[in-house]
Amino acid sequence: MRVQLPDTPARADLLAARPTLWLNPDLRSGGIADPDLPVRPEQVAEASANWQHLAPLLQAVFPELRATGGHIRSDLIEATALRPALGYGGFEFGRIFVKADNALPVAGSIKARGGVYEVFMFAQDLARRNGLLSPTDDITKLAGPEARALFARHMIAVGSTGNLGLSVGIAARALGFRAAVHMSLDAKPWKVERLRKLGVEVVLHEADYTTAVEKARDEAESDPLIYFVDDERSQTLFFGYSAAAAELATQLQASGVTVDVDHPLFVYLPCGIGGAPGGVAYGLKAIFGDAVHAFFVEPVQSPCAIVHMMSGQRDLVSVYDVGLTNRTEADGMAVARMSAFVAEVMRPMLSGVFTVADDDLFRWLEKANRLQGIMLEPSATASFAGPDFIVQSPEGQRYLRERDLTDKVGYATHILWATGGSFVPADQFHDFLRRGAALNT
Ligand SMILES: Cc1ncc(COP(=O)(O)O)c(C=O)c1O
């Protein structure tokens, strides 16, 4: 299929794989309240309550969560040292923070928020259905021998470019489930190794992510003892991510940041299939409404959210359909076709999507490490281009003008969501640094 995209200011750059910003023409004030959406804003608070309920169990099975009472949280770091090196020294950029999901405990990436949540919610549900847990029972019963024996009879399967597989595999094995991770050809060997050491069955596909997910889904459908974590469709994953919004709101308040229509919050979220950025964006919309402006970021060769949302078509459009290759070093974002569910939910509330070149990812990775001491993988730096697109590019300035934000942007806060990296082995990280340093000189 060859698809003709509508003539928007972003189209020429998009098709030529040059960095660009696409603004969503369907963004609407109060879009989250759209009654036709398949999800409700109340589900965000429900997810936070579920995380709270699961915390004692998480603390019991993951020693690294003892210090946080079972909460999987990341720091919010003001990018004081980094911002001048990114070109954001001026007052017109407001305040700039890095949300350090790269260092999230348990899985070392934003995927801990979705994958761990879905596995633990499934475990709770399975135990209840099997009469092992009543709603009033202590949730830590699920770390006990009876529950483990039940879980050992079940398998959890997932398709992944790497990090979702890590988070699901780690969570599943921690509770005693069998686990199978279907990896796309983008998956990094260290992620495969790490999962195999945990006893996860890793199936390597010589195909892209969409195919890996399809294969995993087909296998799960043929066996009632396999539970499939469906990255293309799962609302559980989506709401697991969404709980990050309340965490960020608390941290912003602690940092003295006001968020309202006069003090806008711009959030930049690396996007693969869309679940993680979609869930976080939805959670933030549920809390801050129109005061938050959510942008996705994608590699120039894998802009699946832009091509689909820009096409305006109902059927999913992939990056191959417009002649792009889906080749990128940003393995977490090497996705050719976005989630139809996320596309539908984001349609009235996503501000836009911008794209970034692989070389820039390495430049930023090196700067973030040298200046701010943060360890990132290439995908995780993609958000760093956000303030530049908003404040300096013609399309960013059009966005500000059309929303009456031009005079307010100096009072804005920008969140660069850093989505993964702390689990990268030292030798590979040094290779990343070397490549970034060479590009930065
Ligand atoms: C580091 C990193 N960032 C961003 C993403 C994008 O998340 P999603 O595929 O849910 O859009 C991923 C996905 O694996 C990732 O690993």
From TrEMBL:
It is an enzyme of class 4 (lyase). Pfam families: PALP (PF00291). The modification N6-(pyridoxal phosphate)lysine is found at residue 111. One of its GO terms (molecular function) is pyridoxal phosphate binding. It catalyses: D-serine = pyruvate + NH4(+). InterPro entries: D_Ser_am_lyase (IPR011780), Ser/Thr_Dehydratase (IPR050147), TrpB-like_PALP (IPR001926), TrpB-like_PALP_sf (IPR036052). The keyword Transport does not apply. One of its GO terms (biological process) is isoleucine biosynthetic process. Residues 76-386 form the Tryptophan synthase beta chain-like PALP domain. The keyword Lyase applies. HAMAP family: D_Ser_dehydrat. This is Probable D-serine dehydratase. It comes from Fuscibacter oryzae. The gene is dsdA.
